Recover the amino acids of this structure.
C-alpha cells in the first residue's frame, strides 16, 4: 500500500486550498492509500536560511521525516501573484533531494479569479528539479470562493469527477513508480 | 531622479545574492538614482496568511511604504529548487498591486550550480502578474561561490560589464516608464 | 509616430487570432500609430533550417525588413497544446536579434477552451531572449468561438476595453522605449 | 517490449540535436526497446492550419501512426530563442490527444550557448497539456558544437553517463506506465 503526504500552501483560516487538499486526501484514502496531511497552519516552520538543521524548529524534522517516508505527495497551493505561494515554496526549500526525489506528485492550485495554470506550471518544474515525478492530472480551481459548500464539498460535479481521476492516477502511478517497487 | 528599492531573497549570512544585490545597487546609485536596499535578514516579516494588515510586524508596513514610493525595483533571488526562493516570494505575497504595479524591475538570480534562468523566468511572469515592467537585461550568476572575491567584487570582467548594462537599462527605462513621468 | 508590425500565428481560414490581431491593429492605428499586419496565410515562409538567407522564399526577407523597420510588435497566437503555435514560433525562428531586439511587444493569445496564460508566458520569455520588451498588458481570449460577432467585433465590453488599454499601453510605451527615441 | 519513437526538431544538415537523438535512440535500443527515429529532414510536413487531415502530405499520417503505436517518445529540440523550435512545435501541433496522450516522454535540448533549461521547461508543460508523462531525467547540452567528436560520439564522460540514465529511466518507466500495461 502506498503512503501519500499532502502539504497545503495557505495559512488562511478559511483556506480553500486546504479544503481542496483535504478533499483530495479523502479520495486518495478511499482508494486504500495511507494519507497524512501536514497542515502548515498547525506547524511552526522557519524561513529557509540555508542551514541544514533547525534544532529550534522540531517541525522541520517532522516534515522531513513524513515526506522522506512517503511514496507520493499532494501539493496544494493558492495561486498568489501568478505562482506558488511563498509559504509552500519555503516549505519545499526546507527539504532537499533526500526527501523529495522520486516522489510521485499530484498538484492542485486554487485561485480567487479565473482559472489559470501558472502556479501548477511552476510547481511542475520545481518538482522536476528535485527529481520528482509529477502526474499529468492536475487541478486548478478558479473562483474558488464559489467552489465549495458550507461543508467543504464541491458544488460542481465535473470538478468532483476531476478529483476522482486525480486520486486514481496518483495512487496507481505511485504504485508503479515508487522507488521501492 | 528615480528611486529604486532592492530586495534580496536569501537569509544566509554569507549570501551571494545579497552581494550581487549590493553590487547592482552601487552601480545604479553611481548613475544618480536613489537606492534603498531592504535586507530581509535585518527585517522581521511574517509568513503571508492572507491578512491585509500585520500590526505585530511593523516591517511589513515599512517594506510596503518603501516599495510604494519607489519607481523601480531590483529583485535578487537565490535559485532554490529551480525557482525563486520562498523567502522572496513570501515578501512579494505580502504586497499587492498597490505597491507593485507599474514598477520597473530588474532581476538577478544566483546559483550554486550551472547558470540557468528558471528563477528569472518565474519572477518575470510573477511581476507581470502584478502589472509591473521587467527589463530585458537580467543576470544569472552560476557557480556563485567562485564569482566574488573576498571584498564582494566580481572576478569576471564580462559579468561586471553585464551589471553595468543592467544598471544603465534599469535607470534609463525607469526614467522613461515610471508612472509619474 | 511609431511603427507597429502585427504577426498572427494561425493559418486557419477563419482564424480568431487573426480577428483579434486585426482588432488590436485597428485600435493601435486609431491612436495615430502606423500599423502593418503580416498575414502568414498570405505569405510563403519555409521551415527554419538554420540557414541565414532564403533566396527561394522572398517573404522571409520581406518579413525581416518589416520587423526591422518597426518600433513595436503585436504577436497573436492561437494556444496549441498549451503554448505558442509552431507556425508563429517558426516565423520568429526565421528572425534574429537583428530584427527583434529592442522591439516593444504586445501579446495576444486565443483559445478554444478556458482562458489560460501558458502561450503568453512562453512568448514573454521568448521575446526577452531576443532582448525585446514585452508590455504588462496582455490579452488571453478563452472560448474564442463565442467572442466575436459575424463582423469580427467583440461581444464582450470588458474584453473590448482590454483591447483599448492594450493598444494605449503599446503605443505609449513604444514611444518611450523605442531605440531611436 | 516497449516501443519508442524519437522526433528531432532541427532541419539543419549537421544538426547536433539529431546527433543527440540518435545517441539516445542507440542507448534505448541497447536496453531492448524498439526504437524508430522520425527524421523531419527526410519528411515532408505542412504547417499546421487546423485541418484534421492532410491528404497531400502522407507523412502526417505516417508520423501520427508511428506515434500512436508507440509507448514512449524522445523529443530532441534545438533551443531557438529560449524555447522549443517552431519545427518541432509544428510537428506536435499536427498531432492531438489521440496520438500523444499517455506517452512516456524523455526530453533533450541542444544549445549553441551556455546550458539552459527553457526549451525543456516549455516542452514539459506542452506534453502535460496533451496528457503525456515526462520523465524527470532530461538532458540539456550547452555549447553543443564542442560536445561531439567527428563520429557523433560524446566527448564528455559525465554527459555520456547522463544519456545512460536517461535511457534507463525512459525504458523502465515506459514499461511501468504504458497504457497497455
Amino acid at each position: 500500500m502506498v503512503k501519500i503526504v499532502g502539504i497545503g500552501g495557505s495559512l488562511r483560516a478559511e483556506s480553500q486550498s486546504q479544503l481542496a487538499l483535504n478533499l483530495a486526501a479523502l479520495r486518495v484514502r478511499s482508494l486504500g492509500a495511507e494519507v497524512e496531511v501536514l497542515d502548515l497552519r498547525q506547524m511552526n516552520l522557519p524561513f529557509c536560511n540555508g542551514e541544514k538543521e533547525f534544532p529550534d524548529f522540531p517541525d522541520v524534522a517532522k516534515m522531513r521525516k513524513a515526506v522522506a517516508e512517503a511514496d507520493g505527495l499532494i501539493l496544494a497551493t493558492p495561486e498568489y501573484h501568478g505562482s506558488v505561494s511563498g509559504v509552500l515554496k519555503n516549505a519545499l526549500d526546507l527539504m532537499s533531494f533526500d526527501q523529495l526525489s522520486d516522489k510521485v506528485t499530484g498538484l492542485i492550485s486554487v485561485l480567487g479569479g479565473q482559472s489559470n495554470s501558472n502556479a501548477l506550471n511552476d510547481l511542475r518544474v520545481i518538482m522536476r528539479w528535485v527529481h520528482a515525478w509529477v502526474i499529468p492530472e492536475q487541478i486548478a480551481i478558479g473562483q474558488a470562493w464559489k467552489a465549495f459548500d458550507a461543508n467543504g464539498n464541491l458544488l460542481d460535479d465535473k470538478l468532483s469527477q476531476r478529483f476522482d481521476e486525480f486520486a486514481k492516477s496518483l495512487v496507481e502511478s505511485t504504485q508503479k513508480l515508487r522507488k521501492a517497487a
